[in-house]
Amino acid sequence: MNLDDWVAASTHELADLAQLADGTPDALDELLQRGLEWLGRIAPYDLAVVFELEGPLLRAKAGRGSLFRPEVREYRIHLDRFPSLRLAIEERRCRVFTEDDHAHGDGDLFDGFMDFPHGHACMIVPLVTGSEVFGVMSIDRARCGHYPSAVVDLAEVFGRLLALSIHCIRQNQKLARASLESEERAAALARRIGEITEDASVLGDSDNAQVRELARQAVLVAQTSSTVLLIGETGTGKERLARFIHEKSPRGKRPFVPVNCAALPSGTLESELFGHERGAFSGALRARPGLFRAADGGTLFLDEIGELPLDLQGKLLRALQEGEVLPVGAEQPIRVSVRVLAATHVDLEQAVAAGRFRGDLYYRLSVYPLRLVPLRERMEDLPAICRVLLEELSARVGKASLRLSAGAEEALRQHDYPGNIRELSNILERGAIRAAAGTIERADLALFAPPGRKRPASSEGGATEALVSLAENERRHIQRVLRATGGRIYGEGGAAEILGLPPTTLQSRMKRLGLRRETNA
């Protein structure tokens, strides 16, 4: 092939090769196979192999020719054994091997693996563009002789063009992976839009000693890479605490990816977490990185970890211990750097005893357990929590400066909140929608009390009260005694004496029930 014919053919071929540089997983393999096929038109061969440089090793990546066999793909060459290869890469020039090179130089690349006659035609083509070194192509013929200089020049130019196409594909694959990871994060956040709780003041400036200690422990563990297990009732703000730990950690600028293990179908949960390869199962039309890889460098929050199926618990344990994930349909695991925060409202120790949860996974997750305080045990924080929630609700309901009347706040104190801050948020939102102006009244809350649940009474001595819990009865009784004594606890005629309790016990119980000493407690 003369130069003019080669230029015309190469222009057409490069246009085709450019279309392969689209970042799809198979684009690189197809490019190498097409490149080797086209190389044979200018430099006939019996075996042509593309080697990719990985540290000190050249690893066979693709091959063609009458002597090619599958074992070639497992062939490795240590670069230190062949100085001529290193020189070809450094100088970016093709190297033609002569009979003397085979006898007295580095020797043949395939010595001990494949027999070629001494003096056979052999050429090395470096694959280098800019500062990026992909590797080399080796071209061998079973007949004796050498490649003409014109063929060597054409092969050298083609090697540069092929290296440039490889670079383009690699860059597009990086962009494609980044795009998929962004899609994973966006999808994870989209799934949570309807689930995120306005659980404000999970920590905040709490008056509750347990909450203050929780905040201290959260700040302490945030500076580490330890796995944290958040334990708490539904609606106590486990996700917000997980975000707090992430933001205070060295990974705070990296992704925070939340996933509710109970909200995803069990059939797709493995693919959601660990990803899958294209064609791994019916409907897998493209590869997907999974949430672990989407959170690479950051934090993965596994909410409701107790709902994770047993068959996936072992794979999660491996990911935590080895720092790698195996996508569905993949042969090789992928390294990831992810901090895992898990949360549950169930008793995992009991689940382990019942055989529903792996003991080894439980111990791996609970390196640093944190227990969230339910709202009924921190009622002294109720006003501050309501203020933050109402600020968040203002934009949603289109009413500025939302606030509670004294009667509405008192009504909220009479509730036991089995749904915790999530339930409080819903009550406030319903009240905000009903409120005529910016002030939420007691009646606005009572109107939307859920069926079967107690409604706040319209007045202290008003309509018949609904049945309430023993704890609520205790709270109301203490409240009445405090009013009768003007808030006095100690001494003769004080609330402690009337109730038959030591003053310190009464104060502790008041704190637990969210009562104040003032006469309007």
TrEMBL record:
Keyword check for ATP-binding: yes
Alphabetical GO biological process terms: regulation of DNA-templated transcription
Signal peptide positions on this chain: none
Residue ranges occupied by any Sigma-54 factor interaction domain in the UniProt entry: 206-433
Alphabetically ordered keywords of this record: ATP-binding, DNA-binding, Nucleotide-binding, Transcription, Transcription regulation
Pfam families recorded: AAA_lid_14, GAF_3, HTH_8, Sigma54_activat
Domain of life the protein comes from: Bacteria
GO molecular function: ATP binding; sequence-specific DNA binding
PANTHER family, sorted: C4-DICARBOXYLATE TRANSPORT TRANSCRIPTIONAL REGULATORY PROTEIN DCTD (PTHR32071:SF57), TRANSCRIPTIONAL REGULATORY PROTEIN (PTHR32071)
Protein name: GAF domain-containing protein
Protein source organism: Polyangium fumosum
Native organism taxonomy: Bacteria, Pseudomonadati, Myxococcota, Polyangia, Polyangiales
